Amino acid sequence: MGKKNWIEFDNQEKKFEETAKVDTFNKRTKIIISKQKKGKKGKTITLIKGFGTEDEILLKELLKKIKVFCGTGGILIDRNIQLQGDMVSKSIEFLRKEGFHNL
Fold first, then answer.
1. CA neighbours within 13 Å on the CB side: how many for 48?
2. Splitting the chain (103 residues) into consecutive groups of 10 residues, what average pLDDT does each group show?
3. Less packed terminus of the chain by CB within 10 Å, N or C?
4. Phi and psi at residue 81, to the nearest 5°
5. Max Cα separation, the chain?
6. Which strands form 80-84's sheet, in the order they lie side by side?
7. Is residue 89 part of a domain?
8. Do the bridges between strand 45-49 and strand 74-77 make them parallel or antiparallel, or are there none, so unpaired?
9. Is the CB of residue 58 less than 8 Å from the CB of residue 23?
10. Domain limits at 82?
11. 8 Å CB contact between 66 and 96
């Protein structure tokens, strides 16, 4: 079959835009990581707060990355990340890899 209506797209422009996107996280703010047991029927959750940004899209991208790294579920509530289980040490390790050093 011939390529009658075939159009080639160049994805290089889109990749360049993605890499050119500047992180608006203020990586010098104090991030608080704590473990809680109240609520959730006594199950342990890890609460991460203090990112210093209002952009929910960036927070959701960070949430997705940290959930994959920790291998657990999580949710974004009021600009705070809640992870299932005791993930304090893994979340500290992940955030240090991402460039957050004020933990």
1. 29
2. 64 54 68 85 90 87 94 93 94 91 81
3. N
4. -95, 130
5. 64
6. 32-36, 45-49, 80-84, 74-77
7. yes
8. unpaired
9. yes
10. 24-98
11. no
Under 8 Å CB-to-CB from 59, ≥6 apart: which residues? 51, 53, 76, 79, 81
30 lies in a domain? yes
Total count of domains within the chain: 1
**CB within 8 A of 93, min separation 6: which ones?**
none
pLDDT of residue 28: 76
Please give the Cα distance from 85 to 17 (Å, whole number): 36
Contacts of 63 (CB under 8 A, 6+ apart): 74, 75, 76, 81
